[in-house]
Write a structure and sequence with these properties.
The chain has 411 residues and is an alpha/beta fold. Helices cover 33% and strands 19% of the residues. The chain has 13 helices and 15 strands. The strands form three sheets. Strands 1, 2, 5, 6, 7, 8, 9, 10, 11, 14 and 15 form an eleven-stranded mixed β-sheet that branches. A two-stranded antiparallel sheet has the order 3-4. It has a two-stranded antiparallel sheet with strand order 12-13. Strand 10, helix 11 and strand 11 form a beta-alpha-beta unit. Helix 3 packs across helix 6, helix 7 packs across helix 13 and helix 10 crosses helix 11. The protein is globular and about 60 Å long. It starts with a strand and ends with a strand.
Length: 411
């Protein structure tokens, strides 16, 4: 029998600033953090907008000796880890350190470091490239440095599944606890991809919205006029604990991870399988893992990145599972953009906050859904709802599908 896994702490950094409450308030007030890019001159790019993290001071929570050797995506993870541990009250000590692990996902990793050092290589030669280039670039370093910061000596690894990385990380971290290999895991996703190379690649792939003149209306999940996603960045880190372990120290329990499902499309390097068959299998696997019926899901946080194919695929998957009689479905990417490897973690947190507050913020800019999207989309106005159990979908380039099921509090 697998062990129960609960959430005791959350740390979020987004285009809206620091904190899960900050992000939640922005969703409820229908704010959009997408604007013209400031980190680089975007004038030559087809897409000149993003949801950047701004006015962020890593020194507020992270030791300077550690942070100066960390790429921004790792800095975000370190910062949010400190917030999450503070909320959870979990202390990593000599007695428990080998039972506390770290698993953090990212889709792209240290692109800022790669960009800076490659420019240095071209301008000044190989001898001037930083010896920290590789350690700062590689995706597993977020988990490695979080362990260094906290002293956690349990299982330590990273997951890279593009836009599903954060969700896969949480699901696998929960599985590590469930099978008894750790009592607690620091997990989630982090991304800092507003760089010249990353933006160039996404633009060349035709993946991004080109509504540069109207950035607040650019990301349009499930709207028939959607034209691509908008890059967002930030991090969401959560503390997972085995239920009895959390109870023994009288921790406040935010929610419980009930189920995790994953699958592969085996179809295309960027496009999802159009019929949504892989997504359906992942959703059904999550329901089976949770031991619940699909009718027990009270709210679905859709991946819905606002790409023509991606949104249509997920809509077909939801229709396959539910027909027209679905629980309320929404996407928050119209507010915070697509946070890539961090988005699955951030959206799970927002789905649980919807359950906590009994309110589903509207899907921003979803004015005219495709005619075949006949399921229940929360749009136009937010909706009060009684929510106990949520499903959060994440799908990534390469056909990686991850679905998390969680419930608020702990029964």
């Amino acid at each position: 029998m697998k062990r129960r896994v609960v959430i005791t702490g959350v740390g979020v950094l987004s285009c809206f600033g620091v904190g899960a409450d900050t992000m939640w308030d922005a969703l409820c007030n229908e704010q959009c953090g997408i604007d013209r890019i400031t980190r680089l001159d975007p004038s030559e790019y087809k897409t000149q907008i993003a949801a950047e993290v701004r006015d962020f001071d890593v020194a507020e929570r992270v030791d300077a000796k550690l942070s100066k050797r960390a790429d921004p995506f790792t800095q975000y993870a370190l910062y949010c880890t400190d917030i999450a541990l503070e909320q959870s009250g979990l202390e990593v000590t000599e007695e428990n350190c080998d039972q506390v692990g770290v698993l953090i996902g990212s889709g792209i990793g240290g692109m800022d470091t790669w960009q800076r050092e490659y420019e240095k290589l071209l301008a000044r030669g190989p001898g001037r490239v930083s010896p920290f280039l590789v350690p700062m670039l590689i995706i597993d370093m977020a988990a490695g440095m979080v362990a260094m910061q906290t002293g956690a000596k349990g299982p330590n690894l990273a997951i890279v599944t593009a836009c599903a990385s954060g969700a896969h990380a949480i699901g696998e971290a929960a599985a590590i606890i469930a099978r008894g290999q750790a009592d607690a895991m620091i997990t989630g996703g982090s991304e800092a991809a507003v760089t010249a190379t990353a933006m160039s690649g996404f633009c060349s792939a035709g993946a991004l919205s080109e509504r540069n003149d109207t950035p607040k209306q650019a990301c349009r999940p499930m709207d028939r006029d959607r034209d691509g996603f908008v890059v967002g960045e930030g991090a969401a880190i959560i503390v997972l604990e085995e239920y009895e372990y959390a109870r023994a120290r009288d921790a406040d329990i935010i929610g419980e991870i009930l189920g995790f499902g994953m699958s592969a499309d085996a179809y295309h390097i960027t496009a999802p399988a159009p019929d949504g068959e892989g997504a359906v299998r992942a959703m059904r696997a999550a329901l089976k893992d949770a031991g619940i019926h699909q009718d027990q899901i009270d709210h679905i946080n859709a991946h819905a990145p606002a790409t023509p194919g991606g949104d249509a695929m997920e809509a077909r998957a939801i229709l396959t599972l539910y027909g027209d009689d679905s629980p309320p479905v929404s996407s928050t990417k119209g507010n915070h953009g697509h946070m890539l490897g961090a988005t699955g973690a951030a959206e799970l947190v927002m789905a649980l906050m919807a359950a906590e507050h009994g309110y589903i913020p509207p899907t921003l800019n979803c004015e005219h859904p495709d005619d075949f999207m006949t399921f229940d989309i929360v749009r136009g106005e937010g909706r009060e709802a009684s929510i106990e159990t949520v499903m959060s979908n994440s799908f990534g380039f390469g056909g990686h599908n991850a679905v998390l099921i969680a419930r608020r509090g702990c029964a």
